[in-house]
Automatic annotation (TrEMBL):
Residues with PTM 4-aspartylphosphate: 53
Protein name: Chemotaxis protein CheY
Endpoints of the signal sequence: none
InterPro entries per record: CheY-like_superfamily, Sig_transdc_resp-reg_receiver, ST_Response_Regulator
Phylogenetic lineage: Bacteria, Pseudomonadati, Planctomycetota, Candidatus Brocadiia, Candidatus Brocadiales
GO biological process, one term: phosphorelay signal transduction system
Keywords from the named record: Phosphoprotein
Positions of the Response regulatory domain: 3-118
Length: 121
């Protein structure tokens, strides 16, 4: 079972993603509330996949993705953002994100992205 770290400053979003993980047979590895916290949790928990919000306090998701990729070049990160802009998508992918999902999201879209990453590993 693949382990997933959830990074989002909104507790309601973290809760929704936890429910999606349970429904999709993924294991909840832990959660972080900002990008700075994300890097330390990644190092501590070593999840298989990370879901990463872009807009967060302290360190945003783009920088956190760069930091995690610098630590582990094989990290698999799904960016989640309410910002539906090509520029943000480009920045996320350039930072090393594996996939990008726009909020509000359908549960199936997250499961699909998680399964794609799992199958490509």
């Amino acid at each position: 079972m693949k382990r997933v770290l959830i990074v989002d400053d909104a507790s309601v979003v973290r809760l929704l993603i936890k429910k999606v993980l349970k429904a999709g047979n993924f294991e909840f590895a832990g959660e972080a509330i900002n990008g700075k916290d994300a890097l330390s949790k990644y190092k501590e928990l070593r999840p298989d996949i990370v879901t990463m919000d872009i807009t967060m306090p302290e360190t945003d998701g783009i920088q956190a993705t760069k930091d995690i990729i610098a630590f582990d070049e094989n990290a698999k990160i799904i960016m989640l953002s309410g910002i539906d802009q090509k520029e943000m998508l480009w920045k996320a992918m350039k930072a090393g994100a594996t996939s990008y999902i726009v909020k509000p999201f359908e549960n199936d879209r997250i499961l699909s992205a998680l399964n794609e990453i799992t199958e490509s590993k």
